[in-house]
Amino acid sequence: MSEVTHVEEIFAKNVFTLGKMKQRLPKEVFQEVKRVKDYGGELSKTAANVVAGVIKDWAIENGATHYTHWFQPLTGITAEKHDAFIAHPDEMGNMITEFSGKELIKGEPDASSFPSGGLRATFEARGYTVWDITSPVFLKEGSMGVILCIPTAFCSYTGEALDKKTPLLRSMEAVSKQAVRLLHLFGNDKVTRVIPSVGAEQEYFLVDEGLYKRRQDLMFAGRTLFGAPAPKGQELDDHYFGVIRERVGGFMKDLNEELWKLGVTAKTQHNEVAPAQHELAPIYETANIAVDHNQIVMETMKRVAGQHNLRCLLHEKPYAGVNGSGKHDNWSLTTDTGKNLLDPGLTPNENIQFLLVLASILKAVDTHADLLRQSAADVGNDHRLGADEAPPAIISVFLGEQLEDVVKQLVETGEATSLKEGGKLRTGVSTLPDTPKDATDRNRTSPFAFTGNKFEFRMVGSSDSIADPNTTLNAIVAEAFCEAADRLEGAEDFELAVHDLIKEYLTEHQRIIFNGNGYSEEWVREAERRGLPNIRSTIEAAATLTSDRTVALFEKFGIFTRSELESREEIVYETYAKTINIEALTMIDMAGKQIIPAVVTYAGTLAETVNALRSAGVNEATESLLLTDVTERLTAMKTALDELISAEKEAAGIKDEKEKAFYYKDTVRPVMDRLRKPADELEMIVDSRLWPIPTYGELMFEV
Ligand code: ADP
Ligand code: MG
Fold first, then answer.
1. Relative to the CA of 334, which ligand 1 atom is closest?
2. Sign of torsion, CA 311 152 570 384?
3. pLDDT confidence band for 2 (50 / 70 / 90)
4. Apex 148 CA angle, 145 and 149, nearest 5
5. Which of 264, 330, 332, 448 maximizes ligand 1 atoms within 8 Å of its Cβ, making it the mutation to test the pocket?
6. Per-residue pLDDT tens for 683-702?
7. Residue to mutate, 454, 456, 457, 470, ligand 1, most ligand atoms under 8 Å from C-beta
C-alpha cells in the first residue's frame, strides 16, 4: 500500500487562508481585510504593508523565493511574471528580503503582448495588475521552486478591463445588488449580499507522453488532425464509470493531493465516455474563486500528467469519432444569510420568491440566448456545439417534469395548485429499500438544465476559462432582476404584482423551455419554429458581443463598455484565424514530410513486387489493385495538400480580421477535411511498420 494521505492535514496547506490571516494579523488589520473582502473598498496603506509583510513571511517560511501577480489575460489561460523577494544588499553585502503593500496590491507587468483587440496600442502599453482580495494568495510548487501567486485583475491605464477577472467581478456586484433589491421586497431585509456560486466539472484526456511527442498535431494543435478510427471506440460503454486503470489512478491520486494543497476541493473523479477520457469535479464555491480554481485545476492536470509520463489534453475534440470534452458550469445564487435562491423547497408551486427568481432566469436566458451561447464559444468547441456532437448550439432550458408542470399551470391559470410528486423508487428486490425519488429526472441532452437547486450550463468547452459564461449569466440575470425590482417597487399591491409578473415572464418566455431530446434532428427544426437562435460557429457568435442588446445590457451594469466588447469581438476573430492557421500548417508539415513519404515508400515496394511478380510470370492482379488503391489516394492527398498551401497563402494576404476568420472557416477548413480523408484511408491500407505516427488505437488505449 502506498502512503496514506490525510486530507485534513494537507488541505489548503499552500493557501494563505482567512484562518492564517486571522492568526498572523493584528486584530484591527484582520478586520479591515475582512471588511474590504466582504463589502469592497480599499485597504489603508498601513494595513496593506502589514498584510504584505505577513504574507511574505509565510511564503518564505514555506520556501518561496519569488512572487507573481497571477492574472487572466484574454488568451483564456493564466499569466505570471516572477519577481524575487530581494532588494539591494546592504553595505555589508547582506540580503534583506522585501515585499511592500504596494507590491502586493499593484503591479505593472508591461504585458503588452497579450491580445487586447486594439484596446491598447503598444506605444501606450501601460497595463496594471490589481490584487483581488477576495481570492486568496497561494504557493505554486514546481521545478522552479516555490512561487507566491497573487490573484489579480488586469486593467489598462485608463481602467479598461484587459482580462477575464475584472468583468466577472463587476458582474458579481451587479447581480448581487439587483438580487438584494428583489429579496428586500420579499421582506428578507437581513440579506446584504447575494453571491453567485459555481462548480465546474472538468473533462480531459490523458495520453502517453512518448506517443504524444511523436504527434506534431497534438503538440501544436492540441488535437489530432489525422487518424483513422481504432477498431474499438466507445461503443461498448465500458469506459464510462469503468474501473480506473492503475497508471491513471496514480495520476489522479497525485492530482487530488496537489489540488487539495492549493485549496481546491477536488471531490469526484471518474472515467468518462471516450477511452482515456476522465472527469474531475470540485465542490462549488464563490464564482471568482471557482474561476481561479478551474484555472489551477487545468494547470495542475498538465503538470501532474508530466510527472507520470503522460500528457493531459484539454482540447474539446482531441480525437474524431469519439466524444469530446466539455465543462459543466454549475451555477446558483446564495445569500449572505446562507439561503440558496434556486432551492425550490418542498412546495415550489407555493414558493413565490423562488418562482419569480426562476421566471426571471428564464426571461434572461431567452432574451440573451445568443449571448449565452457566445460565452461558451471557442475554436475547439466548434467541433462539439452544432457539429457532429452534442450539446447542440441551441440554448434551451430543462426544468424537469415537476417544475414544467408548475409553469404550465401558472401560464394557463395564473396559479399552480397541484404538485407532481416524485413517488417511490421501487427496485423489486425485497432486501433493497424503496427510496423516495427526485421529482425530476435528468436530461443529459439539455444545454441549460435545472438540477435541483442550481442550473447546469453544459455548453462550455473543456479548455476554456469559465469566466465568460459566468460573467454573462450574472449579467443577464442582474438585468432581469433589475427589471422585476423596478416594476415591483412601484406596485400598489405587491402580491398581485408578483403574480402578474411571474405569469407574464413565463408566458412570454416559455419557448425557451424544452424537456425533450436536445440531440435530435426534430429539436433543431422545432427550435427554428420557436425562433430560437442556432449559431453554429464561434465566429458567427462573435457579432453578438456588440449587438445593441448586448451593449445595452453590459453598459447598464458597468460590466463592459462598448469598446471593451468591440475589442473582445476582434480577439475572437484573431484567435480563430490563428488557431486554424496553426492547424493547417501542422497538417501541411505532417502530410508533406511524414505521411506522403511513407506512402510513397509503400507504393514503391508494391510497384517492385508487381514488377517482380510479372517477370516471374506470376499473376500480379491483387498487388496491382492494391497499388492503384494507394496511388489514387496519394493523388487525392497531394492535390488537397497543394490546395491547402495556396489557401494558406491567400489567407495570409487578408488584412481584415473578421474576413480572415471567415476565410479560414469557409475555405481553409474544408480543404483540411479533404486532406485528412485520403490520409486516414491510407492509414488503413499502408503497412503499419511504415506508418509514421502513432495510431488512434495506441493513443487512446496505451495509457
Ligand atoms: P450532478 O452533476 O450529478 O448533479 P452534483 O450534484 O454532485 O452532480 O454537482 C455537480 C457539480 O455541481 C459539483 O461541482 C457541485 O459542487 C456543483 N454544485 C452543487 N450545488 C451547487 C450550487 N448550489 N451552486 C453551484 N454549483 C453547485
Ligand atoms: Mg453534472
1. 23
2. positive
3. low
4. 120
5. 330
6. 999 999 999 999 999 999 98
7. 454
